[in-house]
Design brief:
A hairpin with a 6-residue loop joins strand 2 and strand 3. By secondary structure, this protein is an alpha+beta fold.
Length: 108
Amino acid sequence: MKVLALEREVPGAAGEDFRPHMRAEAEKGWELYQAGIIRELYFHRDLHSAVFVLECADEKEAGEILGTMPLVKAGLIAFDVIPLLPYPGFSRLFYKEEHPPSRRKGRR
């Protein structure tokens, strides 16, 4: 399952608190990338916060993996974890009007 993880700083974290952990953070990120867990890694242009696309069994596993990041362990950052599903909307291109696909709750 693909999971989107959006970093957010923990209130009260100061810039100098991050410095001692930055090399270890990069090493852990590289380890997870090499293992195929982190599939994509970005920085939010305006907030300079990390955005990960992870490949995990579910959002619980993603949270556990993100908990191994040094900045998370140090209590400086946390992640919002968003489970993703493939977009089903293209199926509308391939059905006949008399047999539309069933709608999911709240979707058009």
